[in-house]
Amino acid sequence: MFPKQIVVLGGENEPDFLETLRKEGWTVLPVRSATQLGALNRDTDSTACGLLLAGAQFEKQLPRFRSLLLSTDFEWVVLLEQQMLEISEVRQFVYECCYDYHHRPIDAKRLLVTLGRLRGKALLRHRQYDVEAPIGELIGEHPVMVQLRKNAQRIARSQANVLITGESGTGKELVARTIHRLSDRSHGVFQAVNCGALPGSLVQSELFGYEKGAFTGASERRLGRIESASGGTLFLDEIGDMALEAQVNLLRFLQEGTIERLGSPHPIGVNVRVVAATHVDLMGRVRQGGFREDLYYRLNVCTIHIPPLRERPSDIIPIAQHLIACHAENLGVPKRRLSSESVQALVNHAWPGNVRELTNRLSQGLVMSSGRFIKPKDMGLEAGVEPSIYPLDKERENAEREALRIALAINQGNRSKVARSLGVSRATLYRLLNKHQLLDLADATS
User: Fold this and answer.
1) How far apart are CA 275 and CA 416, in angstroms?
2) For a Cys-Cys bond, which of 54, 98, 164, 360 suits 58, CB 3.0-4.6 Å?
3) What's the pLDDT at 426?
4) pLDDT tens digits for 121-160?
5) Measuring CA to CA, which residue among 122, 45, 37 is closest to residue 77?
């Protein structure tokens, strides 16, 4: 049976009504730190419900609470003063981050009903995610890709805007489509716009549309990309290349949820989720004056970073095998296998073009190969030398270093807590920290 446990976050003192919850069979778990919340979030078999207590400084703490709530797999109810709902930022927070809200003064019976529905929703989702939802073509078992899939699932369940970062060719649009498919907007349109390919003179009309007669040649009304995506997802690729003038109007849309077609003074409400992507350092653009800082923070509510292919070499061959299966039929050629030399060549290649380059080379290999196997020369690659990229001791070192970094972050560098969480002695921990040059991340707590 799914336990009646609820995490309580916020508030300086424990409210009296929590005792009522305990009498009704709820186990109340007060949380005072992000570390505590993270530990409870990992124990999703027993905890999946949260109650956020909004205090007097709640409006100023919204960014912190948004980050905390979206980092968990919990369903949340926020308890606040009714007048707080008159603030647009608070309403947006409740909409994006919470299952429901309850306002003071406390109506214990109504709150219990709300929490009962909350628990039911949490139970349904708990059962749904016992088996990982299908992620389509986000292939790879490298730890960063496993985490990326989890993050995509978690973000998809919210309404928050998303910024996807990564080098060209890493698959940013694929991640955006995955988020759309896993969201409750999957029935709507996925509208992709390449901001870098739009001439500055056409950005306004393309994004916001225009009325008949708005300018010479406007012979009929045309809906813009934003309006066409209403009810679905708008994907703004290469957002860093958008002209500053267009950034102003995009910011206004994100703030107000309305647009104005060219030639029309009447605002139009549009319900769309925005997912943006960039291969450039947007904050660097902000510092250089090429990108608006307020727009950056509107877009960057949640971030997903896609690592380059060279940083996850263990995923190269699984991705290659998937691409061969997908593209052989499309190209009208037999499905072929990779020779052992090709496997080595693929693993040893630097992949400056990432998955896009891998797709291109494999397509070339499928077309150019004459036998059952794709050889390195068919893909325009040099034959691979005997690989030394997967020695077990190297993989073990990488896993050790990553585990140490995570444990240090969770336990705020406390060596005793880190040792206990990793199941090793203090002496072993010190040896590992010294080995991986992480002593400076740990404190001197004994």
Assistant:
1) 42
2) 54
3) 84
4) 776 655 443 334 345 578 888 888 888 998 999 999 889 9
5) 122
